[in-house]
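Q: I'm a student working through a structural biology exercise. My instructor gave each of us a protein and asked us to get a predicted structure, then write a short paragraph describing it. Mine is RNA-binding protein KhpB. I'm not confident about reading structure output yet, so if you can add a plain explanation after the tokens, that would really help. Here is the sequence I was given:
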Amino acid sequence: MKKLLVTGKSIEEAVKNGLRQWNTTEDRVKIHVLEQPSRGLFGFIGTRDAKVELELIPDAVEETIYFLQDVFRTMRLEVRIEKKIDKENMELHLYGSDLGMLIGRRGQTLDALQYLMNIVANRYSTTHMRIVLDAENFRERRQKTLEELADRLAERVIRTKKEVILEPMSPQERKVIHAQLQEHPKVRTFSRGEEPNRRVVIVLR
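A: Happy to help. First, here is the predicted structure for RNA-binding protein KhpB. I'll explain a few features afterward.
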């Protein structure tokens, strides 16, 4: 936990001095008053400043970014991380060269990094967080690929009148298949098996 010892002629001044040093706001710190200010004899002999300890409250997203930076530093990769926040989602986007090794086969490495990253984020968050990790717009490209796959396999089921069982997928990828065929008039989907070998099954309605 990051802490800072600061002084000032008043508690308020000491706190402001600390916030200025950290370039942060009061809602990001816990304030522990160690010594009250004292005016001393005749108002100036033996005066004593206020002494305050500030404790920085960790920010879940910042700690997550620090975690990723440590991982990339260990891997000797130069990666730029950008935050993208809207009302519903928090995303971290990775930019750099040779990001293929961070994506992995069908995004498996990216999914593993995202899983670890969310463990870190929720360690520092008071509410449950889910942060999406993306690189080179892989998530968007993968979603489009899965949607096209779902449509092709649905046509096969209709043509052959036989069920199709897909290869094991992550919960997020299975969700894409289910969503794509949810309103299909002739086929339906369900999942079969246990993680990590759970698969989507497409059958006639």
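A: Here are two points you could use in your paragraph. The longest helix spans residues 138-160. The CA atoms of residues 29 and 56 lie 5 Å apart. It's a good idea to check both against the output above yourself.
Q: Great, thank you!
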